[in-house]
């Protein structure tokens, strides 16, 4: 296990280096000059050159790449070009709000989708199964923006159950007041594809020989489903959860904008609009690191979920 872990961590280095080079080249070759954006439309060429010199954009590309690599190694990304706030402080202060919203979404998506999918797989072909599949298909056909608009109008303005915007310094107040509505809408969107996918996993397992053998030995449906089918379906479920984790953080961009949540997603979108490269580059590299670490954690969980999996 230790040798496997060390080898996987070592293999991440060239992958991360490729991501870093791609991010650096992308920002150098695509997009407008950040100095011109920060200077404004009425700035003179002399003012633009001064800003370019202050930001170090007039240096050779290999010098800028060296500075970028040093920032990654030291985790010191400097300051935001637009607000002069330390990038490390931006991440430290905005990340808690993002986690406050995204963590309940991930937990509820998984905990609700698994029993629902297991139940409809058990009654496959029934009216309940067909009705739920039609409902999930309809739900998948509706844009998340529609969910947000309708949800805010009905639950916020008409019924007055939840505020549609706002945030506070208290985590408990946020969880009780401002988080429920975006979490409810996000789970309503994410539950449909998860249910359909997990149902297919369970149906595959229900058709295996070991299920027929367990039933032939007189084992009840409860133990068959929870002790055998669910356990053997954990491998693809863990894979799907691992793939969904980075996507949930990306999805937080829209949620934070629509509900005025001062999280990291909204900060990254503001940085994109302002061509604030230090913030964007830090977010891109951190997201790549997060994705690789999640993939590693998922592989380690395979061995915990199924003793037949041997990590070499």
Feature tags:
312 residues, mainly alpha, MetI-like fold, 78% helix
Describe it for me?
- It is a single chain.
- It contains 14 helices and no strands.
- It has helices at residues 2-29, 34-39, 45-55, 61-74, 87-122, 127-140, 144-158, 171-178, 180-206, 209-216, 221-232, 234-258, 264-274, 277-305.
- The model has no long low-confidence stretch (mean pLDDT 78).
- How many helices? The count is 14
CATH topology of one domain: MetI-like fold
Order of helices and strands: HHHHHHHHHHHHHH
Shape: globular
- Approximately how much beta-strand content do the residues carry? under 5%
Low-pLDDT runs: none
CATH superfamily of one domain: MetI-like
User: Care to count the β-strands?
Assistant: 0
CATH architecture descriptor text of one domain = Orthogonal Bundle
What is the straight-line distance between the termini? 8 Å
The level of helicity is over 70%
Mean pLDDT: 78
Blueprint (SSEs and pairs):
Elements: H1 2-29, H2 34-39, H3 45-55, H4 61-74, H5 87-122, H6 127-140, H7 144-158, H8 171-178, H9 180-206, H10 209-216, H11 221-232, H12 234-258, H13 264-274, H14 277-305
């Amino acid at each position: 296990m230790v040798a496997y872990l060390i080898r996987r961590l070592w293999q991440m280095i060239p992958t991360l280096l490729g991501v870093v080079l791609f991010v650096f080249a992308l920002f150098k070759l695509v997009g407008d000059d950040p100095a011109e954006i920060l200077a404004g439309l009425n700035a003179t060429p002399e003012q633009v050159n001064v800003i370019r010199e202050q930001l170090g954009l007039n240096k050779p590309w290999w010098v800028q790449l060296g500075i970028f690599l040093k920032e990654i190694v030291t985790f010191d990304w400097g300051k935001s070009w637009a607000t002069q706030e330390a990038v490390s402080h931006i991440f430290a202060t905005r990340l808690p709000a993002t986690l406050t919203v995204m963590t309940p979404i991930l937990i509820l998506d998984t905990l609700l989708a698994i029993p629902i999918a297991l139940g409809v797989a058990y009654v496959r072909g029934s009216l309940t199964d067909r009705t739920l599949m039609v409902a999930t298909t309809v739900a998948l056909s509706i844009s998340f923006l529609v969910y947000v608009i309708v949800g805010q109008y009905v639950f916020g303005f008409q019924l007055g159950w939840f505020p549609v915007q706002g945030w506070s310094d208290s985590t408990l107040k946020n969880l009780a007041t401002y988080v429920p509505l975006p979490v409810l809408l996000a789970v309503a969107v994410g539950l449909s594809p998860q249910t359909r996918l997990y149902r297919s996993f369970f149906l595959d397992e229900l058709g295996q020989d070991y299920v027929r053998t367990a039933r032939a030995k007189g084992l009840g449906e409860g133990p068959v489903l929870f002790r055998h089918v669910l356990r053997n379906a954990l491998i693809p479920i863990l894979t799907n959860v691992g793939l969904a984790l980075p996507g949930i953080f990306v999805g937080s961009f829209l949620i934070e904008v629509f509900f005025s949540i001062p999280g990291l997603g909204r900060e990254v979108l503001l940085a994109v609009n302002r061509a604030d490269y230090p913030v964007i580059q830090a977010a891109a590299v951190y997201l790549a690191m997060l994705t690789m670490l999640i993939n590693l954690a998922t592989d380690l969980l395979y061995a915990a979920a199924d003793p037949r999996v041997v990590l070499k």
